[in-house]
Design brief:
With 580 residues, the chain is α/β, with parallel strands linked by helices. The chain has four domains: 1-77 and 144-228, HAD superfamily/HAD-like (Rossmann fold); 82-143, Hypothetical Protein Ta0175, Chain: A, domain 2 (Alpha-Beta Complex); 233-468, P-loop containing nucleotide triphosphate hydrolases (Rossmann fold), CATH 3.40.50.300; 473-577, no CATH class. The chain is 37% helix and 18% strand. The chain has an eleven-stranded mixed sheet with strand order 14-13-23-22-21-15-20-19-16-18-17. β24 and β25 (500-502) form a beta hairpin. α1 (22-33) packs parallel to α8 (205-219) and α18 packs across α21. The longest helix is centred in the middle third of the chain and has 19 residues, at 341-359. The protein is elongated.
């Protein structure tokens, strides 16, 4: 379920004239019965609230005093979230004739006393802010508002604001509704709030709350998914339009419910596209768990890596880390033999499904080399595995080698390489759906073809969004990783007497130092090093350096083999080995 928490304002939203009607209370009880939690976010003082609203205990947390106080109804514990009011400030206001009510962290008055309040703050040199609420004037320490109060409540519950549906009506609700995954303004809300809300109800006050609760319980608000573009994930911009004067037209997927298959041959741009998606998720504080068989993502910024090439990742440790709502995890599977990975993956997926049922997190599950974790010969023994693949990204070179049970969950395909339409047709045959019409499209570097396979729409050519950390992540792969045979460099010599494979840059340097001068110069003069650096390592700057060395070697005579070796070695180590 996407919306695990319903957070609501009190006056003007849940309540009308300070009271909550019986039908609204019954609707709130149904929310609790569905397994969801309730959070009240109000500007009222807690003693006042408990007097007017005796049903307060049905809420799991209460944010009172406009974000200054957190209350746990079950245990009756209170936690002040800011400094208490300054006594000199209160004294000065009273001396200036301002009527005030003082809470644990808030000082409240009403219009038209706001100017006197602001003058007093200025005169005393205090770091305070004034917040308005339909005639009420509230004074709090700077940075304290309903939004920070909601953050504190979510942290206390061990949940994420991305799983919150928020409802409000007034100026002071802006800050907390902005935090929520979906924001709702009741019909009687201020115009400015309705303009910024994702949804505006037909009903006023409690009727509006009941209205949105009915929709929540019917379909988890899936009917409104297309409206939540502020949380959508960019797969790219339409390539045929990205260079026009009309501006970029993004191709979006929902941040919840959509499953993505990223497919294509090695070095075709898959990891670039995925890196861009992951950085979007991290930027918006969506939690992800990435299963990484090859160690390609172990240095991804913002995620904690568990497991090493020699150490099997402990599922218990993974789950403990994921209990922290904003902490994403990369699970390095290199320490697990390939034949054992499907069984390990199935066990971890079952554990992740239990966590998702309880917390709706991790928000995204990412499986790199999905054909290793979910091979076509494997079918899940438990129905929890397909459920655990909800809101997932599967990455593979061989989609036809991925379990059909996993492929059946896919909503969107992002395909790179020279034959994307063939990939679409192979996928469609496996899952038993009509394939899109059309011939293969010649994609430029940085482009992909996107197909929403459950819609009756043709594929879309896009320019993908590259990740800012893409270059950093590839340093280690090219320096120390295992490039495929097709990507490797081979020292063969003029008569092909040798067949020495360099599967990364470190191996290239080692072999370069050991091969005879004739072999080294044969490949240098042909431009083989320049071509490999440019086409397989995809480093134009390194290729340019190699071309310069090749040109200089023409004039260096007998010194050419040693000098050219040294210069190319220096260029590689400067750019890669030291950084890796």
């Amino acid at each position: 379920m996407r919306y695990l928490v319903l957070a609501t304002d009190y006056d003007g939203t849940l309540a009308s004239h300070g009271r909550v009607r019986e039908s609204t209370l019954e609707a709130l009880k149904r929310v609790c019965s569905s397994g969801r939690k309730l959070v009240l976010v109000t500007g009222r003082h807690l003693p006042d609230l408990t007097t007017v609203f005796p049903e307060l205990n049905m809420f799991h947390r209460v944010v009172a005093e406009n974000g200054a106080l957190l209350y746990r109804p079950e245990s009756r514990e209170e936690k002040l979230l800011c400094e208490p009011p300054n006594p000199d400030f209160i004294k000065a206001l009273k001396e200036r004739g301002v009527p005030v009510s003082v809470g644990r962290g808030i000082v409240a008055t009403c219009e038209p006393h706001q100017d006197t309040v602001l003058d007093t703050i200025h005169d005393l040199g205090l770091d305070l802010q004034v917040i308005f609420n339909k005639g009420a004037v509230m004074v709090l320490p700077s940075g304290i508002n309903k939004g920070t109060g909601l953050d504190a409540a979510m942290k206390d519950l061990g949940l994420s604001a991305h799983n919150v549906l928020g409802i409000g009506d007034a100026e002071n609700d802006h800050s907390f509704l902005l935090k929520c995954e979906c924001s709702v303004a009741v019909a009687n809300a201020l115009t400015t709030l309705k303009e910024r809300a994702d949804i505006v109800t037909i009903g006023k006050n409690g009727s509006g709350v009941e209205e949105i609760i009915e929709q929540l319980l019917e379909d988890d608000l899936a009917r409104y998914d297309s409206r939540l573009v502020r949380h959508a994930v960019w797969l790219g911009v339409r390539a045929e339009e990205s260079d026009s004067n009309d501006g970029e037209k993004p191709v979006l997927v929902n941040s919840y419910r959509d499953n993505i298959l990223v497919a294509g041959p090695s070095a075709s741009g898959k990891s670039t596209a995925v890196s861009g998606i992951l950085e979007q998720l991290a930027e918006h504080e969506y939690q992800f768990c990435l299963l990484d068989p090859e160690g390609d993502f172990e240095d991804f910024a913002g995620a904690l890596t568990l497991g090493t090439p020699k150490e099997r990742p402990d599922p218990r440790a993974i789950l403990r880390v994921l209990e922290l709502p904003q902490q994403s995890v990369v699970v390095n599977l290199m320490g697990i033999p390939i034949p054992d990975r499907p069984e390990y993956g199935a066990g971890l997926l079952a554990n992740l499904q239990e966590l998702r049922t309880r917390t709706s997190r991790p928000h995204w599950l990412v499986l790199d080399e999905a054909h290793h974790l979910l091979p076509s010969s494997w079918s899940p023994a438990s129905s929890t595995v397909p459920q655990a693949l909800e809101t997932a990204i599967l990455i593979t070179v061989h989609p036809d080698h991925v379990s059909p049970s996993a492929l059946e969950t896919i909503d969107v395909l992002l395909v790179t390489g020279k034959t994307p339409m063939e990939t679409f047709r192979a996928f469609a045959k496996i899952v038993g759906i009509p394939a899109p019409d059309g011939e293969n499209i010649e994609l430029k570097p940085g482009e992909a073809l996107v197909w929403f396979c459950k819609r009756e729409e043709p594929p879309i050519r896009v320019r993908t969004v590259p990740g800012k950390a893409e270059r950093r992540r590839h340093l280690r792969q090219y320096a120390e990783g295992e490039l495929s045979p097709e990507q490797s460099f081979y020292f063969r010599g003029p008569e092909s007497k040798l067949n020495l494979r360099a599967h990364n840059l470190n191996t290239f340097v080692q072999l370069a130092e050991g091969v005879d001068d004739e072999t080294w110069m044969f490949h240098l003069r042909r431009g083989d090093y320049t071509q490999w650096f440019r086409e397989m390592i995809k480093d134009a700057a390194l290729a340019k350096d190699a071309a310069a060395v090749q040109e200089a070697a023409k004039e260096n005579g007998a010194a050419a083999p040693k000098e050219s070796r040294d210069k190319i070695k220096e260029a590689i180590e400067t750019r890669y080995t030291a950084a890796a």
